[in-house]
Sequence to fold (296 residues):
Amino acid sequence: MPGISYICSLRGDLGIPKKEVLKSLDSMVHSGRYRRNILIDDNNYVLGCTLYDEYPLASFEYGDLVICLEGQIFGLDSIALEKELRRLADFLMGDSGIEDGFSRWLLDTDGAFVIFILNRKTCEIVLMNDSLGNLPMYYCRDGDTFMISRESRFITNLMRRKEIERTSMAQYLLLGTTLGGGTLLKDVFRLPHSTLIRMDLKAGRMEMKSLDRYNFEKKENAGKDVRQNAGNLVSIFTRTCLSRVSSDASYGNVLSLSGGLDSRAVGACLHENHIPFSAATKLCRDGSNKNDVETA
Fold:
């Protein structure tokens, strides 16, 4: 799994040899296309990543701040994106109205992303993800050491003690998945969506807040008829699909036909809006999805 990995100590030096951190990052270089980079390195923290050439990951400096974006925020060109990230960083490093403002910003922002912000001068760090948690992240606090990564292997390589989480294992055997934020390993969790992590490494403080919980009991559009609600959903779905369309002729737009209704809906939207695209799928051994192959 490409993406960022971060480890820090909330009390002084890291306490884990840097060569072990690098070794853990190297274990996630899964093919010759991948490479490992160290983005920020200090006595008590390391921010690294694994990626390939096309993977969307960018970082830049802004005064005392280092801002790293993994993933994408849709609908913004590179200039507007950097401006928006600077504005967000200034806001998050402030003191007032953060929770309400952050929640509003997330709901208004269409993207799949993880954002990391470091103030080199104060050693304050902010890490956040998008409103749906589109990019899975895993974290663990092991004593004074905090680790978070797009791939749990980074964490498990560096944990001092690894134990199976028995309840999560039972859930997985029964349901095929774990419930909530639990994983199969004790003390390793999946990061909830809309989560804001704030760390002050000089003071040794850390707080983690999930600021937006969806409440499906609120039915704001219950008074509208089926046609109105369907029309609104079509408008939102269309806007979302079109914001993801590539304008790069060298890549084009490729729709993966998976056999489900979601890919068909995206295909219908692109066709209706005269967006050129190619389709790809795979032929099952028993030929059960030959219609998808013919369509592709």
The first strand starts at residue 3 and ends at 9.
